């Protein structure tokens, strides 16, 4: 998880940040600031906005067509919310790093209601810090080193179940990642709840990108029902663990949440358990799917990884050690770790994330352009070198070859 934060910072090139501009915030601002112009773009249909254009096709097509038309910052309307999309490394750094305090983590309304308002993703400040500490505590080497053999069992079971079948790698990886997530949340108790949690979670996730319309028959409604059932199952698990007074003997995430001195409520625990399943599952499954693809396309790398893994088995055989993988073995996999890291870099599995502006933000005011144009026009003249009419897309529309020009001091 920690790595993902570095990923988040380092992969700003691939990030599209959605900044939700809440109307009430804009209205509360002094009138001269509220009059600041919004970037160009279109808000689409009333309420529905441009949700279908974004979600019904490869998002790159949506982004590329918007960028061609409006540039790398444009306004739109997604999942019932007016927002601004930003798609340059500089803008991502501005939102996620240099001015992070001006932007509150957020998600579209449907996701927020399904995960639960008290999940870590929607908070800043003390509550966020506390949750972050509790999550990290459950993923320290000390806490996870003993579950390596259990993860191995889940992996072996998954792979065996694929044998002789045509499988959808991503779907299978999702099941694998889900089972591992449950293991890290509930420890060995997870098998007792796996099927019930799975059934409800799979209905819930279908509604993550739905319009938040809670009417019978809608995807959102079905998902919200599954969400309520998930809360009930989680409440039961928490109460069983409390009654057994066994918290001390667990080192899983639930124990970390339940053991907090200041105390999380059952609802806070439930929202964050579901939040972690959400955070851990599709991301991990996606990376694994890309790894399978890249290894298949690069036999030399596949051979090197296989060789590295075989030498671990050979070492165990030679020393008479059991074949079960342990924590120390996972430290002998530098090549495999590099494949994972390179896949994270190349595949860029999270292509956008969301933030809500906590106050009106002026990004890249035209100041720097004005200054440049002042000097360009007053001190220089220029001539274009080579073809003058061509356009190139990369995917941004640019003059051919970036418009090579020659600049001359303006002598008149
Ligand atoms: C390789 C797979 C993963 C990737 C690529 C990934 C990526 C990310 C990114 C980019 C964020 C920041 C989102 C934002 O700020 O808008 C994030 C947050 C988070 N991730 Fe992951 N993640 C992965 C796996 C996991 C796993 C396995 C867990 C399980 C604990 C997890 C738990 C979290 C949590 C709790 C947050 C919120 C942290 C906070 O708000 O401080 N992630 N992840």
UniProtKB/TrEMBL annotation:
<keyword id="KW-0479">Metal-binding</keyword>
<protein>
    <submittedName>
        <fullName>Uncharacterized protein</fullName>
    </submittedName>
</protein>
<dbReference type="GO" id="GO:0020037">
    <property type="term" value="F:heme binding"/>
</dbReference>
<keyword id="KW-0408">Iron</keyword>
<dbReference type="InterPro" id="IPR036396">
    <property type="entry name" value="Cyt_P450_sf"/>
</dbReference>
<dbReference type="GO" id="GO:0010295">
    <property type="term" value="F:(+)-abscisic acid 8'-hydroxylase activity"/>
</dbReference>
<dbReference type="InterPro" id="IPR001128">
    <property type="entry name" value="Cyt_P450"/>
</dbReference>
<comment type="similarity">
    <text>Belongs to the cytochrome P450 family.</text>
</comment>
<dbReference type="GO" id="GO:0009687">
    <property type="term" value="P:abscisic acid metabolic process"/>
</dbReference>
<dbReference type="GO" id="GO:0016125">
    <property type="term" value="P:sterol metabolic process"/>
</dbReference>
<dbReference type="Pfam" id="PF00067">
    <property type="entry name" value="p450"/>
</dbReference>
<dbReference type="GO" id="GO:0005506">
    <property type="term" value="F:iron ion binding"/>
</dbReference>
<dbReference type="InterPro" id="IPR002403">
    <property type="entry name" value="Cyt_P450_E_grp-IV"/>
</dbReference>
């Amino acid at each position: 998880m920690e790595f993902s934060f570095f990923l988040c910072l380092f992969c700003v090139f691939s990030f599209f940040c959605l900044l939700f501009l809440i109307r009430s915030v804009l209205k509360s601002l002094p009138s001269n600031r509220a009059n600041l112009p919004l970037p160009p773009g279109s808000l689409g249909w009333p309420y529905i906005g441009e949700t279908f254009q974004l979600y019904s096709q490869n998002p790159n097509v949506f982004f590329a067509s918007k960028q061609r038309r409006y540039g790398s910052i444009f306004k739109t309307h997604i999942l019932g919310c007016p927002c601004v999309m930003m798609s340059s490394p500089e803008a991502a750094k501005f939102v996620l790093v240099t001015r992070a305090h001006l932007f509150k983590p957020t998600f579209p309304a449907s996701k927020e209601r399904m995960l639960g308002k008290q999940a870590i993703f929607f908070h800043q400040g003390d509550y966020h810090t506390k949750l972050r500490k509790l999550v990290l505590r459950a993923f320290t080497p000390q806490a996870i080193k003993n579950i390596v053999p259990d993860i191995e069992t889940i992996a072996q079971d998954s792979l065996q179940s694929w044998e002789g079948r045509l499988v959808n790698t991503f779907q299978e990886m999702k099941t694998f990642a889900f089972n591992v997530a449950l293991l890290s949340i509930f420890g060995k108790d997870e098998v007792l709840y796996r099927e019930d949690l799975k059934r409800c979670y799979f209905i819930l996730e279908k509604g993550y990108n739905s319009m938040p319309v809670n009417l019978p028959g809608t995807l959102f409604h079905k998902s919200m029902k599954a969400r309520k059932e998930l809360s009930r199952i989680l409440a039961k698990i928490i109460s069983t663990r409390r009654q057994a007074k066994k918290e001390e003997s667990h080192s899983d995430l639930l124990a970390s949440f339940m053991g907090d001195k200041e105390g999380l409520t059952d609802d806070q625990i439930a929202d964050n358990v579901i939040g972690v399943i959400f955070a851990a599952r599709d991301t991990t499954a996606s990376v694994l799917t890309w790894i399978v693809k890249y290894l298949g396309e690069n036999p030399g790398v596949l051979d090197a990884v296989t060789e590295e893994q075989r030498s671990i088995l050979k070492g165990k055989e030679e020393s008479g050690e059991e074949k079960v993988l342990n924590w120390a073995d996972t430290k002998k996999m530098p090549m495999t770790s590099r494949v994972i890291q390179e896949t994270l870099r190349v595949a860029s599995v999270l292509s956008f994330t969301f933030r809500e502006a906590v106050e009106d933000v002026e990004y890249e005011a035209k100041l720097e352009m004005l200054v440049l144009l002042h000097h360009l026009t007053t001190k220089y003249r220029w001539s274009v070198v080579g073809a003058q009419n061509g356009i190139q897309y990369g995917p941004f529309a640019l003059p051919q070859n970036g418009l090579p020009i020659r600049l001359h001091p303006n002598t008149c």
